[in-house]
Amino acid sequence: MIAQPEVLSSGDGSGPSQASNIHGGSNTEELVTMLNNLQTTIVNKIAMTNVQEYPDRIKLLELAIPLGFQPSRQLIHNLCLIFAKTIDQNTVILFDDPANKVLLDLTLLMVQLWISEYIEHDNFILSSVVELVEVLICS
Asked: Is 83 exposed, middle or buried (0-12, 13-18, 19+ CB in 10 A)?
């Protein structure tokens, strides 16, 4: 089964519009909502998998860490699960590689945001931050 993008009509019934030939429409608000829903759904599914068995942890972190700046507790909870499965005493050495310095910097900024915005009212994020910081100290 292959998904085919919708062909949007020009409105006069004469055929495809020249300016808008994208899937889902051209309403920015609708597209942003769709992107948000897709991110949340995919992160939920990844959190429920055996993510620790995924061989390219750097790629996973490159995609997951920026999502930690989203103001969604559900998304952050699932990212906490992903990080707990992905970053441990054995894999934290990935951050020691100079090529991964940006990932470490982004992780620290993300943790700082979570501390300032969420841990006071969310014990799950608090315990996840504590565990993540304990592991990162080893790097």
From this structure: buried
Q: How many helices (H) and strands (E) are present in the chain, helices listed first? A: 5, 0
Q: Which amino acid is at 16?
A: P
In the chain, the number of structural domains is 1
Q: What are phi and psi of 16, to 5 degrees?
A: -65, 145
- CB–CB of 137/89 below 8 Å? no
pLDDT at 10: 47
The whole-model pTM stands at 0.78
Q: What's residue 138's pLDDT?
A: 81
Residue 16 lies in a domain: no
Q: Is residue 1 part of a domain?
A: no
What is the C-alpha separation between 73 and 51, in angstroms, rounded? 20
